[in-house]
Amino acid sequence: MFLLTVIVYPLVLALLCAGAGVLVDRASGGALCGPLLVPVGAAALIALSQLTTYIPGLARATPAALAIVALAGVGLAWQRARRARAGLRESATRLLAAGGWVAAASVLVYVIALAPVLLSGRATFSSFMALSDSAFHLIGADYLIRHGQSYSHLDLRNSYGLFIDNYYNSSYPSGADTLFGGSAFLLGLPLIWAFQPFIAFMLAAAAGPAWLLARGIGLDRAWAAVATLCATLPALVYAYALIGSVKEIAALALILCLGALVTVRSDWLHGSARGAIPFALVTAAGVSALGVGFGAWALAAALVALVVLVGGDERARAGARLRRGAIVRRRDTRSALTARPLVLVAVGLVVLAVSALPTWADLSGSVQVTQSIAGTSNPGNLRSPLKAVQALGVWLDGSYKLAPGGGAHTLTYALIALALAACVLGVVQLLRSGPRALACWLVLMAGVWLIVSSSSTTWVGAKTLMLTSPAVVLAAWAGVAALRASRWSLAAGLVGALLLGGVLVSDAFQYRSSDLAPTARYEELASLNARFAGRGPTLFTDFDEYAMYELRDLDIGGPDFVYPPPALAQIAGGYGRPVNLQRALPAALSAYPLIITRRNPAAVRPPAAYRLAWQGTYYQVWQRQPSAPPALAHVALTGGPAAQCAQIARVAASPAARGAQLVAATAPTVVRIPPQRAAHPRGWGRVHGSLVLSRPGSLSATFVTPRAGDWTVWLEGRLMPAVTVDVDGRRLGTIAGQLAGNSLVPDTMTPLRVRLAAGAHRLTITRGGFTLAPGGGGTAVLDGVLVAPAGASPVLRAVAGARWRSLCGVAYQWVELVGA
User: Whole-number mean pLDDT of the chain?
Assistant: First the structure.
C-alpha cells in the first residue's frame, strides 16, 4: 500500500492531468506550453468531476470519466508525435533541455512535500492532530464519488450524516475533493492513505507555473529551478501542506497558473478566441475548489490580462497573427482588435459558466459559505494572527503558529530582512525595465492579501497570507535576477543561497515536528468497517473524527465530535471531551446496535444489554443482544465496597425492582502509576496535568502487583517519537507513532505483556536522543501508566432483586435494574 500510494498514485495523477492538459491545449488552439499542461489539466479534471458528481447517477462513473479524458489526450499527443516523426528527435532534444529543469523541480517539490510520509516508510498522513478539517475532506471525497451531490437520504441523527449535511449540502466547495476521490477510486486506494500524496502532487503541479514566472523575472535553467523550489515550498506553504489544507494547496497551483497565463504566456490574448479556454477553466476550478472567494485572485489576473490586451504592443499582436498565418489589412486589423476582446470574453464566460455549474447553480449558498468562513470568530488552530513577514518564506521553528526562540529568532528575522530587501529591489527593477505585466501581477497579489486580510478574520487572513507567499518569494528572486544583471553579480549567488537555505531549513524544522497518523490503529478501524458494514448505527466513544471515514459504512455517532448525535450530546463534556456512557439514558442507547470503545483496562463496561463481539489491539466492539430490553435504571457506583453496598440497596428498594434483576459490572484490578510523581528530568514540562517528554531522558517509578501472573503495561498519552519501556531492567518494547485524537482524552497505546511476581517492581520509560526521523521532534506527552492483569475485563454478576445483599463486598463499576 505504501509504494502504491506514494509512487504509483502520483504517476497516475500526472498522466491523468497531462492527458487532460493536452486536450485543453488542442481545444484552445495551442495556447499552452509544457509546464502548464499538468495544472491546467488538473483544472479540467476538477471541472469534469464536479459535473459528473452533480448528477448523482453519474457519480460512480467519475473515475472512468477521468481516465477516458486522460487517455484521449494521451492518444492525441501520440498521433501528433507520429505525424511529426521527422522532426521528433530535434523537438525532443529541445523539450528535454527546456523541460528537464521543470520536471526535476516538480519531483523535488513532491519529495520534500511528502518527506514525513516517505521517510516514515509507511502509509500515513501528516495532518494528524494539527487540523481535523482533513477528516471532513476524506468523508466528503468518498461520499461524493459514491453518492454524488445528493443528500436527501442522509441520517441526521448521527455524526456522519450531520457532517456531510452541514458541509457539502450547504454549497461547501468540493472541487479538490472530487478530483481527489475520483483519482484515488480509479486505483482502489483508501482515501486516508492517498490524501497526503494528493496534496504533495498538487503542490508539485504548482512548480510548472512557478518555473514560467521565474523565467519571466529573468532567471534561467538552474537559477529558475531553485527559485521555483523556494516559491512552491516557502515555510508557510509547507506548513499548510503538512496540515492537509487540500483546498488551499489546490488553489495555490491554480493561482500561479493564472499568473503565468497572463504575464508570461499571454500570446493567447492576441490570438484566437479559443485561447480563453485555459484561463476560464483554471478560474472555474479555483471557484470549485476554494469557493467564490477565489474570484479575488481571478480578478487580479483578469486586470493584468486587460492591461496586456489593451496596452500590448503591435509586435506581439503581429507575431500572433503571423503564427496563425493570417494576412490582414490595417483597417481589418482595427476592426479585429475591437471585436476580438469581446469574443474572447464571451468564450471565457461560457466555459466558466459550464465548468463551475454546480457552484453557479447555488450561487447564493456559495456566497453564504464564503461570507461565513470569512466572518467566523473561530480562529481554528491559531492562537493569534500570523505575522505578515511569514510570507517571505522563512520561519525557523517547528510550528508556523509560534515565534522562533533564542538564536533562531535572530537568524529568522535576519533572513527575513534580506528577503524583504531583495523583494523591494526585484519589484522596482521589474517596474523599471522588466515585464511590467508580471510586476503588476506581483503587486496585485499583495493587494489581494491586504484587502482580504483587512476584511476577514484571523483564520482567513492566515490562509490568504499563505496563498500570497509564493508571489512574495518570487519577487525576492526577482531581486536576485536584478543583482545577476548588475555589477553585483557575485552577491546574487550569496543572496540566492541564503534564500534557498532559509526555506529548506524552515521546512526541515516542520518536517521534524510533524505528527504522523497511527497507521496500525486506522487499519484496525478499516477491518471493523469491513466486518460490521451495514450493522449500524454505531456509537463511537473515542475522540477521532477520522473514524468517520474508516467506519463510513457503520453510520457512526461521536458524542464528542463537532456534530454529535443530538440524542446523546450530553454524555460528553463538549467537543473533544471524554465520553461517559453512564450519563446516557438506557432508552437512548437502544438505537445503537453497536458500540465501539477504545481498549483500556480501567474503562467502564457498556450496559448489560451489550456483549463483546470483537476485540483487537486498540478497539472493542460491543453488540446489543437482539432481545435485550433497555435497563429500567443504570446507576454508576462510587467509593469502596461498603459505600457501594448502600447504593445497591437503594436501587433494590425502588418500586421498579419488584420482579426485576440486578446486574452489576465488577471493577478490574488496575495499578495506576502517575508519571507526574515519578522521577524524571527537570526539563520535562507539564500541560493539562500531563508530563511532556520534551527532551531525551528517563522516567523511573516503583509499583506493586498484588499477585503473580501475566500482566500488561498500558501507556496513556500521545507519543510520536520513540520511547522504550522496561520493567525491572527487562525491555518490554518500543512505542512510537501512537497518537490520540486530542489532548483531552488520555487514550491508551499498544499493551506490553510481561510476567511478574507479586510485590514491588520498577518501571522505566526512556526517550532517546536526537534523530532525523520524521516526527522526531513531534508530540511526546504521557498522561498515565496502567498495569493490569492480562486479559482482565469487567465481569457481569446478575441476581434477583431480593438477593441484592449477595452483591456486597466487591467493587463494581455500575449496577443496572433489568426487567425479568
Answer: 89
Q: Which of 257, 112, 255, 254 is nearest to 196 (CA)?
A: 112
Identify which of 322, 495, 493 has the alpha carbon closest to the alpha carbon of residue 422.
495
For the chain, percent of residues with pLDDT exceeding 70: 93
Which of 438, 210, 127, 409 has the alpha carbon at shortest distance from 308? 438
Res 396: pLDDT: 94
Least confident range of 143-147, 314-318, 350-354, 511-515: 314-318
pLDDT value for 313: 41
Dihedral angle of Cα 21, 26, 28, 30, to the nearest 10 degrees: 90
- For the cut 70, the answer to whether the pLDDT of residue 331 exceeds it is no
Specify the pLDDT at position 40: 96
Q: Going by DSSP bridges, is the β-strand pair 690-692/730-735 parallel, antiparallel, or unpaired?
A: unpaired
Residues 197-212, buried b or exposed e (16+ Cβ, 10 A)?
A: bbbbbbbbbbbbbbbb
Report whether pLDDT(254) > 90.
Answer: yes
Burial class (CB in 10 A: 0-12, 13-18, 19+), 642: exposed
Query: Helices in 631-685 by DSSP H: which ranges?
Result: 641-652
**Chain centroid to CA 457: how far?**
21
Q: How far apart, in whole angstroms, are the C-alpha atoms of residue 593 and residue 595? A: 7
pLDDT-derived band at 461, boundaries 50, 70, 90? confident
3-state secondary structure 561-614: CCCCCHHHHHHECCCCCCECHHHCCHHHHCCCCEEEEECCCCCCCCCCCEEEEE
Contact status, residue 784 vs residue 716, Cβ threshold 8 Å: yes
Please tell me the predicted confidence (pLDDT) of residue 746. Answer: 81
The Cα–Cα gap between 305 and 292 comes to 20
Non-local CB neighbours of 726 within 8 Å, separated by 6+ positions: 732, 763, 764, 765, 766
SS3 748: strand
Confidence band (pLDDT; 50, 70, 90) for 324? Answer: very low
Helix (H, G, I), strand (E, B) or coil at 111: helix
User: Distance between CA 680 and CA 682 in Å, rounded?
Assistant: 6
Other CB atoms within a 10 A radius of the CB of residue 421 amount to 13
Q: At what angle do helices 235-242 and 489-513 cross, to 10 degrees?
A: 20
Question: What secondary structure does DSSP assign to 60-105, as a single string?
Answer: GGHHHHHHHHHHHHHHHHHHHHHHTGGGHHHHHHHHHHHHHHHHHH
- C-alpha–C-alpha distance, residues 610 and 633, integer Å: 15
* Cα separation, 634 vs 654, whole angstroms: 12
- For β-strands 752-756 and 709-719, DSSP reports them as antiparallel
pLDDT score of 98: 52
What does the pLDDT average to over 694-712?
A: 94
Whole-angstrom distance, CA of residue 729 vs CA of residue 746: 26
* Cα angle 192, 503, 458; round to 5: 65
- Whether 730 has a pLDDT exceeding 70, the answer reads yes
Here the cell at position 117 is: 510520509
Which of these, 115, 107, 118, 391, lies nearest to 229 by C-alpha position? 107
Phi-psi bin for 809: left (phi > 0), alpha (psi -120 to 50), beta? left
Task: Classify burial at 76, counting beta carbons within 10 Å of its beta carbon; exposed 0-12, middle 13-18, buried 19 or more.
Answer: middle
For 714-747, give the secondary structure using H, E and C.
Answer: EEEEEECCCEEEEECCEEEEEECCECCCCCCCCC
Q: What are the chain's domains?
A: 2-367+381-513 (no CATH), 518-630 (no CATH), 671-789 (2.60.120.260)
Percentage of residues in the chain with pLDDT exceeding 90?
Answer: 65
The per-residue pLDDT for range 367-381, each reduced to its tens digit, is 888 777 766 666 667
> How many other C-beta atoms can be found within 10 angstroms of the C-beta atom of residue 505?
17
Q: Give the pLDDT confidence score for residue 330 in this predicted structure.
A: 45
Instruction: Give residue for cell 487532460.
Output: 20
Look at residue 85 in the predicted model and tell me its pLDDT: 54
Residue 605 pLDDT greater than 50, yes or no: yes
CB 563 within 8 A of CB 166: yes
